[in-house]
Amino acid sequence: MVSLNELVLVCLTYVVGLFAIAFLAERAALRGRGGWLLRSPVVYTLSLSIYCTAWTFYGAVGYAARSGLEYLTIYLGPSIVMIGWWWVLRRLVRIGRSQRVTSIADLISSRYGKSNTLAIVVTVMAVIGVTPYIALQLQSVILSLAIFATPDAGLAGAEDAPFNRAQAAFWVATGLALFTVLFGTRNLNVNERHHGVVIAVAVEAVVKLVALIAVGVFVVWGLAGGVGDTLQRIDASAIGEWEVKGSRWAALMFVSAAAFLCLPRMFQVMVVENNDDRHLQIASWAFPLYLMLMSLFVVPIAVVGLDLLPAGSNPDLFVLSLPLSQGQNGLAMLAFLGGFSSATSMVIVATLALSTMVSNHIVMPIWLNLRRGGATQSGDVRSVVILARRLSILLIIALGFSYYRVSGGSGALAAIGTISFGGVAQFLPALLGGMFWRGATRMGALCGLGVGFVLWVFTMLLPSFGMDVALSQSTFEQGLLGAGWLRPQALFGVEGLDPTVHAVVWSLSLNTLVFFVVSLFTFPDPIERLQGAQFVNVLDHGGSARGWTASVAGSEDLMIMAQRILGAAEAQAFFRQEAKAQGRSGNLPEPTPTFVQELERELAGSVGAATAHAMVGQIVGGTSVSVQDLLAVADESAQMLEYSSQLEAKSRELSETAEELRRANEKLTQLSLQKDSFLSQISHELRTPMTSIRSFSEILRDAAKLSEADKTRYASIIHSETIRLTRLLDDLLDLSVLENGQGNLHIGEGALQDVLDRAVTTALTGSENPITVTRAGVQEDIMIRTDLDRLVQVFINLITNAKKYCRADAPALTILLGRRSDGVTVDFVDNGEGIPADAQAVIFEKLYRATGAEGDGAGLGLAICREIMHRLDGEISYLTSYDGAAFRVYLPASALASAQTDQSELTQPA
Amino acid sequence: MPQRRMFLERRSYRMRRMMDALRFLPLIGLCLWMVPLLWPLPEAGHTDPMPMSVALKYLFGVWLALVVMAWALWRYTRGQAEADAAQGPSDRAP
Fold first, then answer.
1. Quick one: residue A542, left, alpha or beta (phi over 0 = left, psi -120 to 50 = alpha)?
2. Burial letters for A179-197: b for 16+ Cβ neighbours within 10 Å, e otherwise?
3. Source organism's superkingdom (chain B) (predicted)?
4. Which residues of B are less than 8 Å from A282 in CB distance?
């Protein structure tokens, strides 16, 4: 017989060994070594075995002894979930990784717009739901200790003096709390991964499997005499017939599958600690195998236990009492360690998961609120987090201990486990709805969870304490406050159902219904919708190196983001245009890869390519910046955008100015060139007559014998050259005077027709190549008041030019008078070839002469004309609309009107 | 080369059907494990109840079969899942 002290010693040694393993694993992980083991699929699968707690180890046999094969439902549900990993777990793990969730409360709150209210609700529900489960572990450890302390007590079911259960429970609880604090909160991991704990859990998984199989093998081949005999014994036993009610079979399988997904500790090892999809794939067959092996020998042990052990023995302890009764102390010790492993690993991981939730969602928000504006150094916060975790661990284990004390530690293990499962299964609608349905809203989740939770408390948790403990007998029989339809085991008057099935069906169906209906009628806020899109579409993105894949993101979410960056109107316009391009009638285009890429490009124009890619990537999925970060970025971007649009306006202004400057510079360069050519031309123009004057005057001076006729001829050449020189100099002087704005205008009145007549007459005098001049347009006499002589000069110049440069066979010039509201125009149009386009801009410059032009002009005529017209407030321009050369002289109304008023004033008194 | 392309298409076709099987497997398991709902219960007055040993063999047989099938499918499709992880879902490619 093993003494209690020996047992405690073995336990302590085992725990120290586990602690050493965990410590080494942590250290290896810290140094980056041992990754092959820490991140291997085997360890992942074994860590999932945290599902098999003391409830499995001890309780399954008791369950089987009481209700036959019903115990299998608890393992069949999770097996189906694992085998169907493709449907739910794959998504869950991806979401967990992409959103960096730390717990199921974090996941649910994150999905519904990072609502802390929801996180608190889920946390509280999880703590209340898991408390019975922790009590169950305490109870199983106490029971197993008790059977070693007083072997007879276990058989007789009586309490004995040498073993004080309450005291033992207290010490076990304290030990577990200490263990968990040491294990789980030694450091604060960024992503809440605990390599040490996972390795320890994996080791414990092996221990409990080996222990249970060892007991099973001993029972089948050692006691029952082989497989065939065992099967015969089974059929002959009290549980030898199939007697599971269909409703319980289905309901329990469903609840266990739901709990497998929703239990905080399962979520911790399955989602938070997962770092590779492939591990999940391997666990999809390896974990059902583990579960199968764990439950394989349950029925034989139960049947042989019922056979061999005296009636009244607690079937929950057959795993221990069978080897003990056969004197197999070593095997009993192994079995005890297996049960101990199951209990401790469950308590450690469950408490860790819950304490993470409590500290992250309840303690920290409160603490940060109280310390608003205070010091928020990271080290400070981290120490607070660790402290919060430790306190939470103590609180949770204290709750478990209290539940154990209150419930009296008497209930069958299986019943307690089912209650716990029913509680956490209430998360399922919000969890699955959030993963698959974008319409799920925070309000829907809150209401659904609330309804489910209240119903669970009323129909499962409170009745579990027994009559007259939490609920009075009258409540059981007449309903709450005497309302017959509020009986905890016959809600709405539906009687005759198994209490468990009743509670599960009502709580989960009403939970789902309320969740669905409230979601339909409420509207999610933008963060919620963004998160919803990310959750639901978590799988629809791969490596996006090839561009965004189809249907990766909802247009709505892209719209929300685009509005924050591009501005509402622009974004809407862009989306409408894209929708139109896709041939859709609405304002939202289909999120095709092309469109998303287009949008990314559009955003890149505003915020830069890298940011745009990251932001589109946010919606499409991938990196793990939170939505609030994203929105912060969007806000910053909006500000930057505003700033950059100001910059853009300024830079546009600058570039316009630069363009003007460039044009001015070009013109200056051109003018400088013109000046150079002007100087060279002017010297040439001066030199030619000078040369002839000099040579002829030398002839006159030096030639002795010159006829009188020659003398006269030479003198007249000299004279005409002098006149030409004078004229050139006069022109230059004239231009200079005009350009400098000097010189007086001799304002006079006269008829425009007369002025034209004078000009035509003068210009055509002594002409060697005649030109036909016709007059057209307004024929009436237009009186003008201006410097008539200057005007004549302009007209003469234009007519002379036409005469000189018109190359037509029969040169003709049309003078066209026109009246406009703002003045008078006089067009001079000839029938020649006109002026080439490239020369039109420079004909009014000084000394410009048409290429190939002959004649004696110095190229000053048009420059002088322009200056004169400028002085007369009119203008002269070249008309491009005619085939031949066409000039328009414009006289303003002021030159006209004053003449008319003067005239009227003059005529009236006369 | 047509031969080579033929081979690849056939292979990827097979792979997709394997993924279909993978998705379908839990449904098969669920159906098979719901068969006990049809078994007679002693309290319903049936004279021929289902013996425990048969029930055990059936349920564990299904379990083992599911594990073996899941294992076989994993062997067959693990390359696919890795490719999936690297390239994104091929089934949804436009």
1. beta
2. bbbbbbbeeeeeebbbbbb
3. Bacteria
4. 74
DSSP state letter for A458: I
Handedness of CA A188, A190, A192, A196 (dihedral sign): negative
CB A288 within 8 A of CB B67: yes
Whether residue A598 contacts residue A502, with contact meaning beta carbons closer than 8 Å, is answered with no
Contacts of B20 in chain A (CB under 8 A): none
Residue A898: which residues within 8 A CB-CB, separation 6 or more? A785
3-state helix, strand, coil in chain B (%, to 5): 80, 0, 20
Q: Which residues contact A706 (CB under 8 A, 6 or more apart)?
A: A699, A700, A714
Closest residue by Cα to residue A750 from A762, A739, A737, A759: A759
Which chain A residues are Cβ-neighbours of B18 within 8 angstroms?
Answer: none
Please give the ipTM for the structure prediction. 0.85
Q: How far, in Å, CA of A22 to CA of A196, rounded?
A: 4
Enumerate helices (H) and strands (E) in chain B, giving the number of each: 2, 0
With CB atoms and an 8 Å threshold, state whether B82 touches A69.
Answer: no
Q: Give the model confidence (pLDDT) of B7-56 as tens digits.
A: 566 777 888 888 888 889 999 999 999 988 888 877 666 667 788 888 88
Burial class (CB in 10 A: 0-12, 13-18, 19+), A723: exposed
Q: Are residues A387 and A159 in contact, defined by beta-carbon separation less than 8 angstroms?
A: no
Q: Do the beta carbons of residue A267 and residue A353 sit within 8 Å?
A: yes
Residue type, A690: M
Ramachandran area for residue A515 (φ above 0: left; ψ -120 to 50: alpha; else beta): alpha
Nearest to A234 among B42, B53, B94 (CB): B53
pLDDT digit string (tens) for A854-909? 555 667 788 888 888 888 888 888 888 888 888 888 888 887 754 444 444 443 43
Structure tokens given for A365: 């928000």
Q: Can you tell me which residue has the tokens 């390896």?
A: A286
Furthest-apart CA atoms within chain A: distance in Å: 174
Residue A673's contacts (CB-CB under 8 Å, 6 or more residues apart) are none
Q: Of A129, A140, A121, A62, nearest to A460 (Cα)? A: A129
* CA torsion through residues A380, A353, A40, A212, sign: positive
Chain B residues in contact with A241 by the CB 8 A cut-off are 42, 49-52
What span, in angstroms and rounded, lies between the C-alpha atoms of A446 and A457? 16
Contact A266, A82 (CB under 8 A): no
Pick the residue of B37, B56, B76 with the most A CBs within 10 A to test the interface with A by mutation: B56
- Annotated domain spans of chain B: 10-37+52-92
CB A827 within 8 A of CB A886: yes
| C-alpha closest to that of A17 among A157, A199, A245 | A199
Q: What is the DSSP letter of A157?
A: T
